[in-house]
Structures are given as C-alpha cells and as structure tokens.
Amino acid sequence: MRGRSDGAQKKRLLTSVCVVAVFLVFLYVYFGSRNAGESALEYGSRLRKLGSSYLGGDEDSDLGHKQDESSVKFGLDDEDELIPCLDRNLIYQMRLKLDLSLMEHYERHCPLPERRFNCLIPPPPGYKIPVKWPKSRDEVWKANIPHTHLAHEKSDQNWMVVKGDKINFPGGGTHFHYGADKYIASIANMLNFSNNVLNNEGRLRTVFDVGCGVASFGGYLLSSNIIAMSLAPNDVHQNQIQFALERGIPASLGVLGTKRLPYPSRSFELAHCSRCRIDWLQRDGILLLELDRVLRPGGYFAYSSPEAYAQDEEDLRIWKQMSALVERMCWRIAAKRNQTVIWQKPLTNDCYLEREPGTQPPMCRSDDDPDAVWGVQMEACITAYSDHDHKTRGSGLAPWPERLTAPPPRLADFGYSSEVFEKDTELWRQRVDHYWSLLSPKIKSDTLRNIMDMKAHLGSFAAALKDKDVWVMNVVPEDGPKTLKIVYDRGLIGTVHNWCESISTYPRTYDLLHAWNVFSDIEKKGCSGEDLLLEMDRIIRPTGFIIIRDKQPVIDFVKKYLAALHWEAVATADSSTEPGQDRDDVFFVVQKKLWLTSESFRDAE
After folding, report:
1. What is the pLDDT of residues 201-247, one digit of tens each?
2. Which of 133, 145, 497, 568 could form a disulfide with 449 if both were Cys (CB 3.0 to 4.6 A apart)?
3. Of 202, 207, 222, whose CA–CA distance to 294 is shortest?
4. In terms of Cα–Cα distance, which of 30, 19, 39, 37 is closest to 77?
C-alpha cells in the first residue's frame, strides 16, 4: 500500500510541475512575443489612434492611446509576406466555406477593420536596394526575396538559378526552356508578322499573360514595345509575382476563379497561356469566356499546352471539346505549330448573328455591363461588340506609340471630347514635370522603375512618363467612372481597386506611389486614413517615394505620422501656379527610409 501511495504522490507532484511549467511557457510566449513584436516592428502596435480624422479630428494624437487588438491576435511569420486580402491564415481563422475547385481560396477575402494588422512590415535581414533596370530583368538580390524553393523546383526549366548572393533569371519557362525571346519570335512568325516582331508594327501593344510564373514572357516583351499584365495566384508557387516585381516587370496577383478579372472589356490584343494548368472546359467554358471578354476585336489567344499536340486519349478528348467550344464562340485557328495553337477572336458581330438559336454559350444580356468588374461574378456568355466596333471592324485604335496621345473612340462613352482628353494630357505633363523638378535632387535616371498611380482617371500621369524607363500600374476607383478602358486604349495597363481595402501585391514592390485626392476620397466613404498610410508603407520599397496631392488638412494629417512610419519629407508645394481647377491642392513628397530591426541585424550577422 505504501508503494501505491508514494506512486500517487509522485504523480500528483509531476502533474503540478507540468501545470506550472505550461503556465510559465504560456506567460513567456504571450508577453515575450508581444515585447519581441514591439521591438521588431518598432512602432507597430502604437502607430495609430483609431477614429482620428484629418478633416477636423483630434489634433493631439496619442499614438499609444489604444492597444490594437489585431497586433496581439495575429503574429507575422518571418517567412511570410503579408498580403492582407490574400491571407490564407485569415481564411482559416474565419472558417470561410470556399470551393477549392473554383479557386475561391485564391480570390480576395479582406479582413474586417478590427482584424487588420496595425504594424509596419520590416524588410528581410540583409535587404539591399534592388538591382536597377534593365539589369534587374536578369538578376535580383537573394536577400530581398529569400525564398529559393522555386529555383530548386523549376531548375530543369530555367525559371531561376541561385548564384551566390543573387538569383539569376535565364529567361526560361515551363514551355520555353531555351528562352522567352525565341518563343516570342516563334509566335510572331506563326502570325506572319514582319521581321518576326510580335508588336506587328505597333498594332499589338497590350498582352495578358495568365499563369505567368516569374513573368519572363512579359519581361522579354518589353523590348518589343509590348506591355503585359502578368497574372498568377499566390498558390504553391509562392512569391512568383514578387520575383516578377522585384525584376521590374509589370505583374499582379490574381486568379481566374469565380469573379471577373479587374480589367475592362476589350483591353488586350493578345492573351497567353503557357502550361498554365487551367481547366478551360469547366462550368460551360466560363474561364475562356472571361478571356473573350477582355480580348479586343480580332485579338489572339496563344495556347501552349499538351492538349495542343499530345496524342494520348485524355489530351485528345480535351482538345476536341475545347476546339468545339471556341468554334461556337466564333474563334478561328489563326496558326498551329508543334506545341502551340493561336486562336483569333472575330472582328465583328457577324458570326454571332449567324449562330443557330439556342447555341451555347449564349450571348450576354443586353443590360449586362462588360466593364463592371469589381466583385462581379463571371458569367458564361459572349459579350457582343458595340455598334462602333462592329462597324469599324475593330477598336479603331492608332498603333503604338501614337495611341498614347491619340483620343480613343471610347471617350464617347463618357461624353468626353477630344479637346478634354488633350487638355488632360497636357495638364498632367506639366504636373509631372513639376514633380520631377522636386525629385531631381534625390533621383537618377534609373532610380525609379515600378510606379503606381493610385487614382489614374484617364492615364495622363502615366502618359507623361513615356520617355522615362518606368512602367505604371494605373489604378481606377471601383465606384467612379469606368475610365480604365481609356487607360488600356492608350496602350497602358492598370486595375480597378477600392482603397478602403489592401491591394493585391506583395510588400516592397513599388518605387513611387502617386496619390491624387485618394485620402479625401476614402474619407468620404468613412474609411481609415491610418489604414491607407499603413498600406502605402507596405507596398512602397525602402528609399521609395510617395507623392500625395490633396487638400491641406490631408497633408497636415500625413505629417503627424512621418516619424512613426520612418518617412522623410522631401518637398511641399501648392498648385496655385499650375493650370487647372485644383488650385487649392497641395502636393507633398516623402521618401521612405531604409530601416532594419534589431532582429534583422542579428540575423544578417
């Protein structure tokens, strides 16, 4: 009996010790992680005071007034790159019921305001100022994107190769191991374009590359005066779009899932899919019909995939069904060679009008707006051309580069005259000249590469940069005039967005942000200016610049947070000497400092 009693006593003692140990571990993790978080993020949990307003709010902003609960609830993994609306951890925590077969888990799902991160994202240990364009097309610093699994996974396909402290990009892809340049020339040759140049003497300017990998296809198109919107999801090939943007190549996160792509109808001359592993036959061909919506009259779809050439039973089945589908969509084969087929969309509505009644897929309803894209579900239907496009047998656009400044036909959709368009182009040319005069002490010809215009309107800010070695992501608000189609008709690219939410890109991906009345616009919606500041800080690169053009109270509001954000004022000017109606605007130029945490220094050592 004594032995049993001693055993029970030992068990009770051991249980008590375990309970105490677990409790101490809990205290260490809870309070230790909070202290470590404050140290690592420096100003993270004390950055904002909720509810303050820059249009007449509390001037005495006590940054430590309110502990942000989300900074305690969620911790940033050092290996993760926070994209708030594409955060799979958030999807798991919110227990969203998503259909994985429809790729809903790769679509945008944004946190509610009370669940948003309230912190700055430090650069990774060893971060360096990015390699300058055009050298960056072929190499980047490994420390800036310390994720090399793609290099190992795709080593046989020449996607990327780790060499010392850099990652090199030989220009290969899953389908074009021997280089994107040769592959691009072969597509041009298939289409009988002169000199095997894909831009077809300026008539082919905008390209949509779906499932783009690290965007080497888009990167090699730039030398032909072609700009591509390279799109891929944040899937198992994580960071592929981050690599593209680090290289200075236009790219965006997104997926062909259940919602329309954030691009207007008739935006691209060419769509491209090289081994993109998309089931084009699903849901009555709805994904292929979404491509049809964004292609211009006479636009091409270049498809390089086993179904186009393999002879096994499954590939033949897919090929036959896909061929039948595109035939009913009135596409024709423009060329087919080896592993690639190129279909062409019709120039007019004639074929649609000749289809037998009841032919599937159907034509879209007459009241369907093909340019309504923000949060709009895809539909398995064909979008007919406007009367103008039907009569002119195409878009009626000038070749590049003339189309950048030539008034496009779709201006009439907004009641804008050619004179209004030309005045807007000249106004922003003068404004951009003024901006560059303020930036000139701080920048060289290769300092800037990736630029975002956060409220692009007609794209005239981007047009004014045509002689600089930069590209611009033109963002048009989701609730205003749908002018993004004018941006695309000028030979530029962009997306629709609501700045009350985070945008679909990685941290540290842009060199310059231009915010024209963006703060005033979101204030009218009741959204947080502090959240927008954090979002801008997230996507701007260290040493990058932000130009805020808005009313004086907005500028005063931003100035209160400069120290907490590690931003430095560069210049302030008013617009009283500028032409135009916004003469009470003030523009404020800031630069983000390169800052590292104490943990980053230790890791680098």
Report:
1. 999 999 999 988 899 999 999 999 999 999 999 876 668 999 999 99
2. 133
3. 207
4. 37
Dist CA 122 CA 592 (whole Å): 12
What does DSSP assign to residue 124? P
> CB 49: neighbour CB atoms within 10 A?
18
- The strand ranges marked E within 440-566 are 450-453, 471-477, 493-497, 510-516, 540-550
- Is the CB of residue 231 less than 8 Å from the CB of residue 252? yes
Mind listing the pLDDT tens digit for each residue in 329-384?
A: 999 999 999 889 999 999 999 999 999 999 999 999 999 999 999 999 999 999 99
**Complete edge-to-edge strand list for the sheet that includes strand 540-550:** 493-497, 471-477, 450-453, 510-516, 540-550, 586-592, 567-574
Element (H, E) at 291: helix 282-294
Q: Identify the band that residue 602 occupies on the pLDDT scale cut at 50, 70 and 90.
A: low
Q: How far is residue 131's CA from residue 139's CA, in Å, rounded to a whole number?
A: 7
Tokens for 331, please give them.
Answer: 């596409």
∠ at Cα 125 (119, 128), nearest 5°?
A: 100
**How far, in whole angstroms, is CA 444 from its chain's centroid?**
26
Neighbours of 180 (CB within 10 A): 23
pLDDT digits (tens, 9 = 90+) for 281-308: 999 999 999 999 999 999 999 999 878 7
Residue 375 CB coordination number (10 Å): 13
Amino acid making up residue 150: L
Running DSSP on this structure, what letter comes out for residue 100? G
Residue 548 CA to residue 182 CA, distance in Å, equals 42
Residue 370 · residue 293 · CB < 8 Å: yes
Query: 320 exposed, middle or buried (CB, 10 Å; 0-12, 13-18, 19+)?
Result: exposed
Strands 295-304 vs 268-274: parallel, antiparallel or unpaired: parallel
Q: Is the pTM of the predicted complex or chain greater than 0.90? A: no
Count CA within 13 A, CB hemisphere, residue 134: 8
User: How far is 306 from 5, CA to CA, in rounded Å?
Assistant: 73
Looking at residue 351, its pLDDT comes to 97
3-state secondary structure (DSSP) of residue 3: helix
